[in-house]
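1st attempt posting a full record on here, be nice pls
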Amino acid sequence: MSGSAAARAPVYLNALGLCCALGPRAEVVAARLFRDAPEPGVQPSAAFLGRRLMVGEVPGELPTLDEYPLPLRGRNNALLRLALDDLGAALPAALEGVAPERVAIVLGSSTSGIGETERAFRQRDLHGGLPADFHYAMQEMGTPARFVAHALGLPRAAQSVISTACSSGAKALATAARLVQGGRADVVIAGGADSLCGFTLAGFSALEAVSEERCNPFSANRRGINIG
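the predicted structure (as tokens):
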């Protein structure tokens, strides 16, 4: 979340919401990260490609999002919901007194809801029809920003999603800073979300870049990367 009192003033990150394979909430991730053996972290799974790979999957139950319109549901947006919840009171405090049209939402994602599409088409192949809880708009790249705008009651906020593979989240933060520095927004809710799916794992596997064990960077014995 980026903010500035006036255009051209310094831009800063004033709150962090986080969830990853180490768990939900920044304080939980930090506590687990600095252990000698971080847990749960990267774990083996055969759920995505039918063969065992080490993946970084967010542990535990995610929000169901049943109260949201169907196109805004899905795992990727549930991760965003966790990150928004982690911001706590800092988010309404940053938005207090700011005109809705002076708020922007800039997110990065390379998957959006493609995982929901994968599951829907597997059901279609098995049973001859798409599931009732699937909507094509789930996979659109703009859906994460629309979800955040809906969740925060900010329909008038400028909304965009950047999709440049691994750099998506970093580019979202850089774009947020430019919006504030250029006087286009007073507060920008910025970040990103990527949920695990076969699409990403298959792509990196085709490049022979994925390790079946925990990755071992900078080692002569390294065998590839782990996807999270």
